[in-house]
Specification:
Layout: E1 2-4, H1 17-25, E2 28-31, H2 34-43, E3 49-52, H3 58-67, E4 73-76, H4 89-97, E5 102-104, H5 110-118, E6 125-129, H6 135-145, E7 151-156, H7 161-172, E8 176-181, E9 189-194, H8 195-200, E10 209-213, H9 224-233, H10 238-249, H11 253-260
Parallel strand pairs: 1-4, 1-5, 2-3, 2-4, 6-7
Antiparallel strand pairs: 7-10, 8-9, 8-10
Helix pairs in contact: 3-4, 6-7, 9-10, 10-11
Amino acid sequence: MIYFCPTPIGNLGDITLRTIEILKSVDIVFAEDTRVTIKLLNHYDIKAKLETYHKFNESYMSDKILEIKDKDIAIVTDAGMPGISDPGEVLVKKLIEENIEFRVLPGANAALTALVLSGLDTEHFTFYGFTGNKSSSRKKEFESLKDLKFTLIFYESPHRVRDFLEDMLEVFGDRKISISREITKVFEETIRGNISEILEGEITEKGEFVIVVSGNDEELIYDIKALLIEEIEKGLTKSKAVKEVSKKYGLSKNEVYKESLEL
C-alpha cells in the first residue's frame, strides 16, 4: 500500500497516532527533504529507509515508485499534506491512471488552521496557494479573483509578503485580511486588519505566511443584454446563452430570460 502522510507544520506533537503507526510499519518513506524528515522520525523513534521525492525529481520518482512491488510506502513532505503546494499530485494522478490503490491520511494543514484563526467567513472559501513571483503576473491573478465573494487563502514567502500586499491593495481595494506565520511554532503570530493598516505597521518577515482575505462584498451590476450578446456571438443559441450567463455570473435565470426577450 502507498500512504500519503501529513506531517506537523511546526509543533512535532501535531501528528496523528495513525500516521506514526504507518511510518513505523512501511518499508520505505519517500520524503521531500530527508534532512527535515529524519528529525521527525528520530523524535518518534521510527527506523525507516528514506528516499527523496521532491519537486525536481517528482515525475521520475513517481514512475520509480510505481515499479516497486510488494512493499508498503509512505509519502511525506517537509510539513503538512502531500500534494497541497507540495510534491504528491503527480504521483496521485499516476496511481489513479494505473488503477493502483492508495490511501491519504488526515492531518495538519496550515491553510485551514489560518482560516479559522482569521475570524473571516468559513462557510465558503477558496484555497489559492502561491501566486506568481513577479508583480505583473501576481496582479493578473488578483484581477481574476477580485470579484469572488468568498474568503480567499494564499501562501507567501516572507521576503515577498509586502510586495504581495501592495499588489493586493491595488487590485482588491482595502479589504479585511488576516496574516498568520509560524503556525504552531513558538513564535506563532496572527495579524488582523485592513490591508492598508497592516502595510503601515511592522511585519516580521520570518517564517512561511498564510494570508486570508475577505471576499468581495460589493454588489456587482451586470449589463445582462451585453453578456447575452457576447455568448450569442460565440455561437450559442439564445436559450443556451441564457443558461450560460445565469450560471457564469450567478444570476437568476428568470431575470436573464426577461432580458433576452428584448434582443
